[in-house]
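// run 5 | inverse folding | seed 20
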């Protein structure tokens, strides 16, 4: 944050006040911009090559794809000059792709684990002697129907905040995993239907799960 703020503020001073003090052929702005960028990129590369936690990988990728290229161009005059220099990415493409893969693998596992825990909790609730919750007057499982959709959507949103390409890749991965979750849900529900016909709230639980199907569609 400090490096990014310093670079943007200093380059703004260069383009507004210092650049005109030198002959055009000196390319003063380009020299300053490239020196700042090279240092920033070296620090980013150093961090990328060290051991990073999942949240650190996410933050670094956000800087590479989002914060750095966009925040540097918030000032119109600065953006115009930066377009001439074309500084490039903070990380080499190969290293960036490596981090993206680590992030996508981790996020996929996180979402899948979240869905599995959610289904396990739902199955446990079926076993309790308790009537399902009502939403807008209808039996429904807020835990299952809403939480599952939110988990997938939140994962997609986090990935899209890094870049559109990363968001699309995660979406494709999650949509491949979703059928597996739905099959597990169906199998668990079928087992409940067969083995729990004497449950006090058997019928309300059936209705709640049928109503969940609309949400999943």
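// decoded
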């Amino acid at each position: 944050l400090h490096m990014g703020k310093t670079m943007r503020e200093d380059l703004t001073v260069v383009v507004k006040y210092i650049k005109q003090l030198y002959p055009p052929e000196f390319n003063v702005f380009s020299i300053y911009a490239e020196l700042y960028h090279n240092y920033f990129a070296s620090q980013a590369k150093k961090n990328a090559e060290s051991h990073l936690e999942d949240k650190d990988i996410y933050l670094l990728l956000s800087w590479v794809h989002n914060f750095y290229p966009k925040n540097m161009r918030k000032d119109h005059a600065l953006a115009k000059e930066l377009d001439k220099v074309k500084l490039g990415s903070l990380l080499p493409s190969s290293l960036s792709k490596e981090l993206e893969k680590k992030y996508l693998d981790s996020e996929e596992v996180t979402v899948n684990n979240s869905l599995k825990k959610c289904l396990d909790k739902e199955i446990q609730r079926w076993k309790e002697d308790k009537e399902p919750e009502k939403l807008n007057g209808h039996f429904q499982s807020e835990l299952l129907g809403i939480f599952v959709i939110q988990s997938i959507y939140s994962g997609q949103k986090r990935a899209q905040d890094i870049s559109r390409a990363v968001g699309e890749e995660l979406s494709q991965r999650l949509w491949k995993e979703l059928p597996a979750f739905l099959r597990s849900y169906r199998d668990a529900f079928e087992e409940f239907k067969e083995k729990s016909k004497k449950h006090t709230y058997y019928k309300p639980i059936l209705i709640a799960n049928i109503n969940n199907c609309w949400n999943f569609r």
